[in-house]
Design brief:
This protein has six helices and 19 strands. By secondary structure, it is α+β, with helices and mostly antiparallel strands. It folds into two domains: about 160 residues, Mog1/PsbP, alpha/beta/alpha sandwich (Protein Transport Mog1p, Chain A); about 150 residues, 3-Layer(aba) Sandwich (Protein Transport Mog1p, Chain A), CATH 3.40.1000. An eight-stranded mixed beta sheet has the order 1-6-7-8-9-5-4-3, sandwiched between helices. Strands 12-13-14-18-17-16-15 form a seven-stranded antiparallel beta sheet, sandwiched between helices. A two-stranded antiparallel sheet has the order 2-10. It is elongated, with a radius of gyration of 24 Å.
């Protein structure tokens, strides 16, 4: 059975089940002792961690744990903080079809007093009957959704007491270390030039800024580096391709291209495009640079901007970051 690594199906199915099936079921209220926090492990790049039962190892392909030999998967999903309350009070806002049979729903109280909801489901996928224990819990500044998925044929390997203990050991850390976040990228960042990591999309992109908080501020240095498949097959099309790529900018006014040329970046063919624009809110003049670095099966897209009065220093830093990007 092939594991599924996307969380959207899980969120929709769980939240719908929580709301539509509760009225027809008896809701139990339980208090389950948590596992020792000393045993809590955090999957790479995840704010959430649990103390997994023996036999489960951190997954390399999704945030969670797995026993691949027996097709057992534990997924840790961070969803917005209001999602928990919304699931209970406004099910019509989270539409979807009930995709599983509800065995039981428990209101859970953790040892620290945190309260959540545990849903136990059955579902058949590709001829295999699955059992799922799903915990939905407000924690820190988010809602944690933890799913323990196990085929019916191997239920004896993971007793329900062990599954519950693992689920309620859920812990959230304040932030993911920068080095750990960067390990999720398909390329290596050898230089950050004083910018901080704001956001990482695993396997795809990183956003950098010199702003103090994780907010988009056009008045600060901003840079995004992403990897993408494809690219122009004819070198003569690179200029046009670069202009199309520039359309991914945030909303700006009076965008005007002021320079475009081919060049080599880290020994590979590339393209540089420069532009200027105005911030629609503050009216500040902005300078923009976009670099494309072409490979055999894809390309690296780098776009950065800063205010005009800080451009000389910003461009030097942007170029240092660009030149420090290495293959994984």
């Amino acid at each position: 059975m092939r594991p599924r690594h996307y969380a959207s199906w899980l969120v929709l199915g769980v939240l719908t089940t929580l709301c539509t099936a509760a009225s027809a079921q008896t809701i139990a209220q339980t208090q389950t002792p948590t596992a020792s926090t000393a045993n809590v492990l955090y999957p790479l790049g995840s704010r959430l961690g649990i103390a997994p039962p023996p036999g489960l190892q951190p997954s390399r392909v999704f945030p969670g744990f797995e026993d691949r030999e027996n097709n057992v998967y534990v997924r840790l999903v961070v969803i917005p903080a209001p999602a928990y309350e919304q699931a209970v009070t406004s099910p019509e806002k989270i539409l979807g079809q009930q995709v599983a049979i509800l065995e039981r729903r428990d209101d859970i109280t953790l040892a620290d007093g945190s309260k959540g909801t545990l849903v136990i489901l059955q579902e058949e996928i590709d001829g295999t009957r699955l059992h799922k224990w799903i915990l939905l819990l407000p924690i820190a500044d988010v809602t944690a959704l933890v799913s323990f998925e196990i085929p019916d044929t191997v239920r004896g390997r993971y007793p329900e007491t062990a599954i519950r203990a693992a689920l309620v050991s859920i812990t959230a850390r304040e932030e993911v270390p920068t080095d750990e976040m960067l390990q999720l990228l398909p390329f290596r960042m050898g230089e950050l030039a004083g910018l901080r990591v704001v956001r990482v999309v695993p396997g795809l992109s990183v956003e950098l800024s010199d702003a103090a908080k994780d907010i988009f501020d056009r008045g600060r240095l901003q840079m995004k580096v992403s990897a993408a498949p494809g690219g122009p097959t004819d070198t003569r099309d690179r200029d046009k391709f670069a202009q199309l790529a520039l359309r991914g900018l945030p909303p700006l006014r009076d965008v005007r291209i002021i320079g475009s040329e081919s060049l080599r970046i880290a020994g590979q063919p590339g393209h540089e495009l420069r532009a200027e624009a105005r911030d629609p809110t503050s009216g500040q003049n902005l300078q923009i640079v976009q670099w494309l670095r072409f490979g055999t099966s894809g390309y690296l897209h780098i776009i950065a901007f800063a205010t005009k009065d800080h451009w000389a220093d910003a461009f030097t830093r942007f170029r240092a970051i660009r030149d420090g990007i290495l293959p994984r």
